[in-house]
Amino acid sequence: MMNVISNHVEGFYGKKTTINGIDGYKQGDYIYFTIPKQNNEEIYMEQKEVGHFLIKKGYSHLAVPIGNRQGSLVTKMNQQDYCVFQTKLANNFTGKSHPELLADFHNKGEAYPYEPNYLSSYGKWKILWQNRIAGFENFYNQQYQERPVSKFNRLFLDTFPYLIGLSENALQYLQESEAETRYHDSDQPCITFQRYNNQLQQPVIWSSDLTYDHPVRDIAEYIRPALLAEDESSIKELKHFFTAYEKVRPLSVFSWRLLYARLLFPVHLFDFVEAGFTHNNPELVYREYKDLLEQHAKYERNLTRFYDNMDVDARTLGIPLLDW
């Protein structure tokens, strides 16, 4: 991979290193990673611009794609397209708690001067979710014709109506919530992550993980796994998270409703199925998906009690509650 990096960095002579299981090469103050291309170049370009904005805001450990000698972000080597990401290792200790770090990240990301053309999902959840459902319905119809049928395939086919039902509930709640007028400045779009899982406290933040959306996107994806558990400690941790986050960046009624709508949409199930059909161990995927579906009863119970558990008086505020 040094040949790829050499097309992006003149006179490259880096020394191999590994960070979070990803191989890279260190040269001077910088570390370079060779990553197979996964998006079109327009998306990488916007993520690069967003990344440089965040670096100026203090996130020096953010990895951004760099151009090659031909002026492109992509280099082809052995019939494979690669991007080269550059970052600095930095001491990221701030003394702030994780929810404070996330709220601060959203405050800084809100200052991004324009809405990206390709990255932005702000105000587009309804159409994006509808497209995701339509894509899976087509996939379901294809799988229905497949023979032989694996155990994972059969489980997906049998439970797909359940996924559609959850999705329709989420779409209805989202549509009603979009009419909510109790919002404030913190409901403006900002830089977010596609699937936030505490990247802010990792040695490297990847610009390829970034998107542009409402800040509750990150909150929903971070707390989603905790809702699959059913114990007092998880609920207490979530309450602490929201208390600390709101000290920096309060949530409006609109934010709470949008957050709840996103938690209702079963993106974690869709993501699992999508990855499962490309996995090389169908028996393992079958067992894991079966376990995930069995855990979902806990998820639904936690969503039913979500506002109460987070000390949000939904009835007084006139926030609709979902009747499972």
TrEMBL record:
A single GO cellular-component term on record: endospore-forming forespore
Superkingdom as given in the UniProt entry: Bacteria
Protein name: Spore coat protein YutH
